[in-house]
């Protein structure tokens, strides 16, 4: 068991450093600091409320379920962050390229990645045309969190899984038809 944990930790750090240091380029430096905010609370909640207020169709139901998925996933993220207390990579590793202001909360799991996946997957489950845009954005947000030095790959992978699980749970809740 100890070997598995060591292998995961080593692989996680290697993948993080590859993304954070070796993939640096001006295009990513320009785009990813903006993309990363698409998984933040302001953007995700505003996007869903906008759709809820302006839509009278199935799209409104999808947005409501996405909002429920977002709330459920963030409750889980908050609990895990309190239990696990994983320090961010820029605290633990040397020579990190930090592309934004340091954060004070813990790293595991990635809240931005969880949030954007909790929305994108609901749209995908309903076969909404918006999922064509939302799924690539979700992957880009997860990638941006590592590129900007804020999260390890496992933080983002588990965030994506949590967002997906909350989406599936909410998808099967029979509300509004």
Word description of this protein:
The protein has 177 residues and is mainly alpha-helical. 72% of the residues lie in helices and 0% in strands. Keywords: Cell membrane, Hydrolase, Membrane, Transmembrane, Transmembrane helix. Its main location: membrane. The chain crosses the membrane at residues 35-54, 61-80, 115-144, 156-175. InterPro entries: PAP2/HPO (IPR000326), PAP2/HPO_sf (IPR036938).
Key terms:
177 residues; mainly alpha; Vanadium-containing Chloroperoxidase, domain 2; 8 helices
How is the secondary structure organized here?
Blueprint: H1 2-22, H2 26-35, H3 41-54, H4 58-84, H5 89-92, H6 111-125, H7 131-147, H8 153-171
Helix pairs in contact: 2-7, 3-4, 4-6, 4-8, 6-7, 6-8, 7-8
């Amino acid at each position: 068991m100890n070997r598995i944990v060591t292998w995961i930790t080593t692989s996680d750090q290697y993948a993080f450093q590859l993304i954070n240091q070796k993939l640096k380029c001006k295009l990513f430096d320009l785009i990813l600091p903006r993309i990363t905010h698409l998984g933040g609370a302001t953007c995700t909640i505003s996007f869903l409320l906008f759709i809820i207020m302006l839509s009278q169709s199935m799209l409104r139901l999808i947005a409501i379920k996405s909002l429920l998925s977002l709330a459920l996933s963030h409750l889980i993220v908050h609990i895990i962050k309190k239990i696990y207390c994983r320090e961010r990579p820029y605290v633990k590793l040397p020579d990190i390229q930090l592309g934004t202001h340091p954060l004070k909360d813990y790293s595991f799991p990635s809240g931005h990645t969880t949030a954007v996946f909790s929305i994108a997957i609901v749209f995908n489950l309903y076969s909404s045309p918006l999922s064509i845009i939302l799924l690539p954005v979700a992957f880009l947000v997860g990638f941006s969190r590592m590129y900007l030095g804020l999260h390890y790959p496992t933080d983002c992978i588990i965030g994506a899984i949590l967002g997906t699980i909350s989406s599936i749970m909410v998808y099967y809740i029979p509300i509004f038809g």
